[in-house]
Amino acid sequence: MKRTSRLLEKYSLHVPAPFQPKDSSLIKHLEKDDTAKISVLNNGFRVMTQENGGETATVGVWIDAGSRFETWENNGVAHFLEHMTFKGTKTRSKNDIDCFFELTGGQLNAYTTREQTVYFCDGMKSNVAPAMERITDILRNPKLRDSDLEAERYTILKEKEDVEMSIDEVMMDHVHLTCFPNDGLGMTILGLEENIARNINIKMIEEYIRQHYTAKRMCMVACGGVRHEEMCRLAEAFWGDLPSEPAKPALNATFHGGHKIVEYDLPCPNLTIAWGTCGQSDHDMVTLQVIEHIFGEWQRAAHEQNAESPIFKIADACKSNDGVLETCQAFTTPYNDVSLFGFYLVSAASTAGPEGLKRFQLEVVRRILAVMNDLTDEQLHVAKESYKLRFLMSGDTTTELADVMGAKILAHGRDIPLAEVWGRIDHVSLNCVREVLARYIMEKPFVLTGVGNAIDIPDDSFKHDLWNKDATYQTRAYAKSA
Q1: What integer pLDDT is reported at residue 2 of this predicted model?
Q2: Do the beta carbons of residue 386 and residue 310 sit within 8 Å?
Q3: Which of 210, 367, 420, 423 holds its CA 20 to 30 A away from the CA of 353?
Q4: Residue 1 in this model has a pLDDT that exceeds 50
């Protein structure tokens, strides 16, 4: 099954905006292939297509349900369901389904996130209808058998074991748990080990389907060599009788500041500092994602000579006997009602030992905040251009484009024209950045999570030291020197 990064960025805005892009000629050139069509069946099931006249297509079903809709008792059931749907249906065996895609050269895949579950396939346009029929079959008529469930326990436990070998996955799971201890957003996608090994059963899976796989929370997405009218006909035939209820549960997660150390035997400690921000539909989200692109992802081995990078300047200014910055990545992780913004740092000790390394980590974070606080017009312009490029590249293939389309329709129920995206990015000003920093970041609660040897990770006093009045003034001075 496909796994997606926990740091994956989804661009989504709730209502149209009047902002106009500065480079209208480029937009006119690009928008000839940027028109999506949306229809809604009587039961609320949606169809979203984008045609390009090609010979290949990506089609699938995007579902507004993921691990955040679970409880501690059934945590892991959404991902377990994803596995079970590939075990065959009431009319087709697993082998029948696999053979169809192998013989037609198609690829069937699925993934589960905290807020979404997605089933999709890539293939030739001539196979769109039979491929969609099979995706519908595995979703609406899965043959849920106890024997398959018991067999999948081992498979998922092995997947969980593999995930826990990835430090960034471990880190982000603990970040979410610390940020959202009383909400489903804090739960892992794969679920608690005891649930996977023993507790999840067929009744739980059937109840999750009944509660969350409803028409108003689902959308058929198709792009490439497809026709909108044909996809609407298929949707009506396959999904027109799907119940619209129960309604989607209300989402109101509350961010909590905190501190957590996860003991791992690592040569270099991994540190994440994360703030709670707005929901993904809020106008501030664009500004936060522009700020993310000021820093991007930096690695010493790959960018040692990039003297213009803000992180290079920070790393160079902080070089001392205390430590060396190896990796720094800014991130935004958007969700429906609340999002995370922060930094992922890997730093190596120098000659001053653990206490010196902790001083170094604090200084790096102070300088990052200082750069954001004293941003220049040139840095902001570069960040906005970087954001635009990343947005364009996110739809380079029909697979990537379908994923972007599915995220849009589930997040806000509409397409976002490219001109609006560009206009919103161009609208971000230094004043916007300052307002967003004041609203969510500066002297606000945050979560500090460290993975590594506890002796190398700052303790809970870090939050006091970071916002210490003298340190704040010192930080502003750092920005001018960096």
Answers
A1: 41
A2: no
A3: 367
A4: no
- Residues 168-177 have pLDDT tens digits of 999 999 999 9
CA dihedral 407, 82, 185, 4 (to 10 degrees): -60
Reported as a single tens digit per residue, the pLDDT across 238-294 is: 999 999 999 999 999 999 999 999 998 888 999 999 999 999 999 999 999 999 998
SS (H, E, C) the chain: CCCCCCCCCCCCCCCCCCCCCCCHHHHHHHHHHCCCEEEECCCCCEEEEEECCCCEEEEEEEECCCHHHCCCCCCCHHHHHHHHHHHEECCCEHHHHHHHHHHHCCEEEEEECCCCEEEEEEEEHHHHHHHHHHHHHHHHCECCCHHHHHHHHHHHHHHHHHHCCCHHHHHHHHHHHHHCCCCHHHCCCCCCHHHHHHHCCHHHHHHHHHHHCCHHHEEEEEEECCCHHHHHHHHHHHHCCCCCCCCCCCCCCCCCCEEEEEECCCCCCEEEEEEEECCCCCCHHHHHHHHHHHHCEEEHHHHCCCCCCHHHHHHHHHCCCCEEEEEEEEEEECCCCCEEEEEEEEEEECCCHHHHHHHHHHHHHHHHHHHHHCCCHHHHHHHHHHHHHHHHHCCCCHHHHHHHHHHHHHHHCCCCCHHHHHHHHHHCCHHHHHHHHHHHHCCCCCEEEEEECHHHCCCCCHHHHHCCHHHHHHHHHHHHHC
Return the structure tokens found at 214: 């409803």
Which pair of tokens denotes residue 168? 């960034």
Asked whether residue 14 carries a pLDDT value surpassing 70, the answer given is no
- Maximum pairwise Cα distance, the chain: 70
Q: The pTM is what?
A: 0.89
Instruction: Report whether pLDDT(352) > 80.
Output: no
Per the document, the length of the chain is 482
**Which residues are known catalytic residues?**
82
Q: How far apart are CA 9 and CA 439, in angstroms?
A: 21
Confidence of residue 62 (pLDDT cuts 50, 70, 90): very high
| Residues in Cβ contact with 326 at an 8 Å cutoff, skipping those fewer than 6 apart | 268, 299, 300, 301, 346, 347, 348
Closest Cα to residue 130, out of 166, 159, 92, 158? 92
Amino acid in position 371: V
Question: Residue 53 class from Cβ within 10 Å (0-12 exposed, 13-18 middle, 19+ buried)?
Answer: exposed
Q: What is the pLDDT of residues 185-240, one digit of tens each?
A: 999 999 999 999 999 999 999 999 999 999 999 999 999 999 999 999 999 999 99
Distant-in-sequence, close-in-space partners of 393: CB < 8 Å, separation ≥ 6: none
Q: Which two tokens stand for residue 184?
A: 């489903």
